[in-house]
Amino acid sequence: MTSSTRHPLDPDPVRATKATAVFGLGLLSVVTGPFLGGLIPATLALLMARESHRELVAADGFLLGARRLRSGVRLAWTGIVLAIAGLVVLAIIGLLHYARHRGGADFDSTVN
Questions:
Q1: How far is CA 71 from CA 35, 39, 43, 49, 76, in A?
Q2: What is the pLDDT of residue 27?
Q3: CA 45 to CA 37: how far, in whole Å?
Q4: Can you list the positions of beta strands (E) in the chain?
Q5: Which tens digit of pLDDT belongs to each residue from 59-107?
Q6: How large a percentage of the chain has pLDDT more than 90?
Q7: Which of 78, 80, 85, 111 has the fewest CB atoms within 10 Å, i.e. the most exposed one?
Q8: Which residues lie closer than 8 Å to 96 by C-beta, 6 or more apart?
Q9: E strands of 31-78, at which residues?
Q10: Burial track 38-55 (b if 16+ CB lie within 10 A, e otherwise)
Q11: What is the pLDDT of residue 91?
Q12: pLDDT tens for residues 10-47?
């Protein structure tokens, strides 16, 4: 028997549903990342990616979806970076707003 022929009792390769879920959560995290809501789906995607990776390795080629899993993990990390960038922008806007409204209140009215 050669390596290119399948044994008749071997299961058919199927798509890994967890890999698809990781991809979907990663995509959701990128979409909602700038609004800080992307942290939740990104965290769930990264946690689920560990389980999915273990299942893909244990299935010995009968589960498909490694590319989808990698893309989902990348999207999840992108969502986290976008959420952090959104938080930094909000902090800068808040500090500028605070400085603008607090600026002239410390000096006496006779000081230029």
A1: 21, 17, 15, 11, 9
A2: 96
A3: 13
A4: 14-15, 63-64
A5: 888 889 999 999 999 999 999 999 999 999 999 999 999 888 875 556 6
A6: 62
A7: 111
A8: none
A9: 63-64
A10: bbebbebbbebbeebbeb
A11: 95
A12: 778 888 999 999 999 999 999 999 888 889 999 999 99
